[in-house]
Automatic annotation (TrEMBL):
Annotated NusB/RsmB/TIM44 domain residues: 10-136
Example of a GO cellular component annotation carried by this entry: cytosol
Entry similarity comment: Belongs to the NusB family.
Highest taxon of source: Bacteria
Molecular function (Gene Ontology), one example: RNA binding
UniProt-listed Pfam families: NusB
InterPro entries: NusB-like_sf (IPR035926), NusB_fam (IPR011605), NusB_RsmB_TIM44 (IPR006027)
Name listed for the protein in its UniProt record: Transcription antitermination protein NusB
GO terms classed as biological process: DNA-templated transcription termination; transcription antitermination
Keywords: RNA-binding, Transcription, Transcription antitermination, Transcription regulation
Amino acid sequence: MAAEKYPSRRKARKHAVEVVYAALVRDDDPVVLFGATAREAGWRDHPWHPFAQELVIGVADHDHELDAVIDGASDKWRISRMSRTDLAILRVATFELLHKDDVPAAVAISEAAHIAEELSAEGSPKFVQGVLSKIASKPDTDAAVDDELAER
């Protein structure tokens, strides 16, 4: 068997981003879309499947919170102006930053930038990295989320 191009968690992140992106484009439920895609593509047999599923479910369960945090950290770029690819990457990585204590912030940011380099436009890795670094550097992210949600 040939060596895999990506480590297992990177593959999970990439597939989670692809599903979140497709759900954005289709205005569909990412969890339902993930389930259908996993069945059709045979993802359930891969070791990265549970982590990808956890990411997609987490993004779906926390979408308003994630968007509020992303919106607050992105200077001059409201969510409505962001590319859907970048938004999908940011949602997955922001979920990791806020809700996955076993994932170091530097890893979540680096992985997101890598995925942006592969899937998005030329300036996207820098943009994604900047937004996520700002999110990660907030001393009290929970309070920031509450403030952002209150402003909506």
